[in-house]
Structures are given as C-alpha cells and as structure tokens.
Amino acid sequence: MKFSERLYTELQPIWRKNHAHPFVQAIGDGTLDKEKFRFFMVQDYLYLIDYAKLFALGAVKATDVETMGRFASLLNSTLNEEMSLHRQYAKKFGVSEEEFATAKPSPTTLAYTHYMLHVGQNGTLADLVAAILPCMWSYWEIGKELNEIPGASDHEFYGEWIKMYSSEEFGQLALWCIELLDNLTDGLPEKDLQRLEEIFLNTTRYEYMFWDMSYHLQMWPTDE
Length: 224
What we know:
By secondary structure, the protein is mostly helical. It is built from eleven helices and no strands.
C-alpha cells in the first residue's frame, strides 16, 4: 500500500468531518453568509503568503533539479498568479487590496502557518510535503464533491471557488504532491512513517479549524 493510500484510509473520519463542516456545506448549497466567506478570503490570503514560503523551502530541500523546478514554479504561480486572482475574486465581497495589505492573521491562521513553517524549516522534504498536502488534497476533494451539486458551480458568489478547486489543473497539482510524498516515503522505516502521519494528521486538523474559524468569524479574544 502506498503511503498516501494509508493516510487516506486511516484519516477518512476526520476528512469527512471537514467535508461535512457547515461552512463547506453552505458553499455547496449557496446559503453561506457572504460576511463569513469574506472573512475566509482575507484569512486565506494571509495563509497563502506563508504557504508560498513552504514552496521556497521545498526548492531548497529538494535533491533533484526537476523537483526544485516544480517547487519554484509553484512559488511563482502562487505569488504572481493565484494571489492576484484571489484579490480580484475578493472584490465581489468588497475586500480591497488595502484591506489585504493591512489584515492581521487570526489565532488559527497564525498557529496553522507557523506549524507548517516549523515543520518545513526543521524537518525533511517528506515532512514538508506531509504538512502542505492536506490543504491542496482536501480542497480538491471538496471542490469535486461540491461541483457535483446541481447548480453549485454556477452560483454568483461561490461558483468560481468551486470551479477553481474542482478543476483538472488544480487536481494535477494535488496528484503531483501525492506522488512526491509516495516517492519520498518508499522504503522508510515505520517510525518515520508514523512521524509523517502525525504531521499530516495535524495539518488536516488545522484544515477543520480553519473552516470553523471562518464560520464563526473568530479573531483574538478581547477584554470588551
């Protein structure tokens, strides 16, 4: 069994919780409060800034030119294409570029990205890939699932998001990352596989927390 198959099988219960989260379900049926999605867009933008840094670390840790080039390409496309599209899409929700520039991360965003950066900086390339994979893999799975709902991909506000993450192009990115993890874990001892599974589990948990944070508009607690 490939390591990715092991992960997919063993962690299916928490994956299904992510799919079943009210935020995700409300995207699919078009009932999500736009203010919640607006909050999500801003926090997701801040998340992408640090996510791009992980692609840079991937290029540093890679041991072959092809993998280095792929991570470098992902870094470039994230910074210069995806984040630009993100800003354009967010205008539908009244988010200005100035708001993006001055936004502060929520506790969950900060914890999630700092955990991935800690793993990426201090661990192996396999550790880094295990940390970043749940985001792209679960978004692809969620996108495909929501795309099957009649009319969901045509929704005025959420259809574009569904189309993006259910697309073949995004799926190819997830599949490349899955294959890379499988190649990196081939022949590793069980203790290393258990460590990687724990990393993957942690960022999968953070994915749920990110949906939950967005649904409840959670920022830092105040004294008010």
